[in-house]
C-alpha cells in the first residue's frame, strides 16, 4: 500500500507518499480502506520528533480516518462479539493510535463507528479524534452534565480549532453556557454561530476580565485548555468555586508558577488528559458512550464536523503547512 512516511523528523518536506507494508490484522481488528483522514496538531508534533506513537501503534501519522471495511478479524474471546451493524464494505470512521495517512489501516473493532447519514465520507475523516477528545474531556474527565437538564459554564480555549469547534457544539447540544477564545473577529463570529455565548479575541482582550464580567464575578465551572503555562494563572483565577481545569495541550509552554493557595481557597481541580495513549478498553468504552449519546445528534443536525480545507493525501506536507495558518475547524486528507 501507499502511505505518508518520513525517515527523520523535520519540517513538512520530510513527508513522502511511498510504498509501505500492508497492515496486519490481529484478532478483533477491522481493516479499513482509507478515503479520508483528519490532520491534527499531534501529527505535526510527531513529524517533528516530539510525540512518538504509543508502544505497538503504527509509526504512520494519522489519529482518525474514514473509509470502507475491507476485512474483519473475529475476536478470540466469545465474550467480545462483533457489533451486528459492522459488515464488509460498510462505510465507517475510526479513532486511531496512528496509521491514518495511508491507503489502509487496521484498528480495534471497539474504536470503529458507523458514519451518520448526515455526514459525508470526507467529513467523517474529521470527526473521531476531535469529537471524542472533546467528549472525553468535557463529560468523562471534566464531569459536566450531558442531557441531564443541568447547566454549567464552560470556557474553551482555541474555539476555532478542530477540538474547539467540536467542544462548542457538544456544549451547546448539552445546554451548557459556553465561552471561547479565538484569534480574530471573523472566527469569533463563526464560533457564535456554532453555539458559543461569547467569543473573545485573545489578541485584543483579557479573557480573565471577560469571564468575570460575563459571569458577574462567579467564574466558569470548567476550562478546556490547549495552551498550558501561558494561561495557567488566568485560568485558575477564571474558575468558580469547585471549578475544574482540564489540560489537553501545551501550545503555550509546560513550565509555570502555581499559586497553591488559590487552589485551596477555591477548591479547584487540575486535570491532565490525553486520548491517544488510553488503553484499548477505555477507548472502546468511550466510543460506545459517544455512539449512544452523541452520534444521534449528528443525524438530527445538532452536531457536524467542520472542514475548512481538503488536500490530496499525497500532499500531506501542504496540509501541515496550512495547519499553521488561519483556519476554522479541520483540515482533511482525501484519496
Q: What this model shows, in words?
A:
With 335 residues, the protein is of the alpha/beta class. It folds into two domains: 2-127 and 276-334, Medium-chain alcohol dehydrogenases, catalytic domain (Quinone Oxidoreductase, Chain A, domain 1); 131-272, NAD(P)-binding Rossmann-like Domain (Rossmann fold, 3-Layer(aba) Sandwich), CATH 3.40.50.720. The protein has helices at 41-47, 121-124, 128-141, 162-173, 185-194, 207-214, 232-238, 260-266, 280-293, 295-299, 316-323; strands spanning 2-5, 16-19, 29-39, 64-72, 91-95, 104-108, 112-114, 153-156, 177-182, 198-201, 220-225, 239-247, 269-272, 307-312, 330-334. Strands 3, 4, 5, 6, 7, 14 and 15 form a seven-stranded mixed β-sheet that branches. Strands 10-9-8-11-12-13 form a six-stranded parallel β-sheet, with helices on both faces. A two-stranded antiparallel sheet has the order 1-2. Helix 7 (232-238) links the parallel strand 11 and strand 12. The mean pLDDT is 96.
Write a concise keyword list for the protein shown above:
335 residues; alpha/beta; Quinone Oxidoreductase, Chain A, domain 1; Rossmann fold; seven-stranded mixed sheet; six-stranded parallel sheet; 11 helices; 15 strands; 29% helix; globular
Kindly summarize this structure in a few lines.
With about 325 residues, this protein is of the alpha/beta class.
CATH superfamily of the largest domain: Medium-chain alcohol dehydrogenases, catalytic domain
The shape, in one word, is globular
Number of strands: 15
CATH architecture of the largest domain: Alpha-Beta Complex
Q: Kindly state the mean pLDDT as a whole number? A: 96
Number of domains: 2
By secondary-structure content and strand pairing, the structural class works out as alpha/beta
Q: What's the tally of helices?
A: 11
Stretches where pLDDT is under 50 for at least 5 consecutive residues are none
Under CATH, the topology of the largest domain can be stated as Quinone Oxidoreductase, Chain A, domain 1
Cα radius of gyration in angstroms: 20 Å
Amino acid at each position: 500500500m501507499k502511505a505518508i512516511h518520513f525517515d527523520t523528523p523535520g519540517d513538512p518536506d520530510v513527508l513522502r507518499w511511498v510504498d509501505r507494508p500492508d497492515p496486519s490484522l490481529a484478532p478483533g481488528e477491522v481493516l479499513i480502506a482509507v478515503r479520508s483522514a483528519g490532520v491534527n496538531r499531534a501529527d505535526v508534533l510527531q513529524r517533528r520528533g516530539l510525540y512518538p506513537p504509543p508502544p505497538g501503534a503504527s509509526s504512520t501519522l494519522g489519529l482518525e480516518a474514514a473509509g470502507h471495511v475491507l476485512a474483519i478479524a473475529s475476536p478470540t474471546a466469545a465474550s467480545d462479539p462483533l457489533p451486528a451493524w459492522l459488515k464488509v464494505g460498510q462505510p465507517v470512521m475510526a479513532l486511531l493510535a496512528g496509521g491514518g495517512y495511508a491507503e489502509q489501516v487496521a484498528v480495534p473493532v471497539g474504536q470503529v463507528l458507523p458514519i451518520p447519514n448526515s455526514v459525508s465520507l470526507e467529513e467523517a475523516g474529521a470527526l473521531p479524534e476531535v469529537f471524542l477528545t472533546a467528549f472525553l474531556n468535557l463529560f468523562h474527565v471534566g464531569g459536566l452534565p450531558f442531557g441531564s437538564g443541568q447547566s454549567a459554564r464552560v470556557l474553551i480555549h482555541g474555539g476555532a480549532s478542530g477540538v474547539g469547534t467540536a467542544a462548542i457544539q457538544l456544549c451547546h447540544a448539552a445546554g451548557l453556557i459556553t465561552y471561547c477564545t479565538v484569534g480574530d473577529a471573523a472566527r469569533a463570529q463563526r464560533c457564535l454561530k456554532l453555539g458559543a455565548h461569547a467569543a473573545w479575541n485573545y489578541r485584543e482582550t483579557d479573557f480573565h476580565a471577560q469571564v468575570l464580567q460575563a459571569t458577574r464575578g462567579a467564574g466558569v465551572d470548567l476550562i478546556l485548555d490547549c495552551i498550558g503555562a501561558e494561561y495557567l494563572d488566568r485560568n485558575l483565577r477564571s474558575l468558580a468555586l469547585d471549578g475544574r481545569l482540564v489540560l489537553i495541550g501545551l501550545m503555550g509552554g509546560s513550565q509555570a508558577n502555581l499559586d497553591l493557595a488559590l487552589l485551596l481557597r477555591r477548591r479547584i481541580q487540575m486535570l491532565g488528559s490525553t486520548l491517544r495513549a488510553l488503553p484499548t478498553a477505555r477507548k472502546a468504552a468511550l466510543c460506545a458512550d459517544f455512539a449512544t449519546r452523541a452520534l444521534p445528534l449528528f443525524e438530527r443536525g445538532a452536531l457536524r464536523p467542520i472542514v475548512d480545507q481538503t488536500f490530496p493525501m499525497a500532499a500531506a506536507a501542504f496540509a501541515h503547512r496550512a495547519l499553521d495558518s488561519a483556519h476554522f475547524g479541520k483540515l482533511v486528507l482525501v484519496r
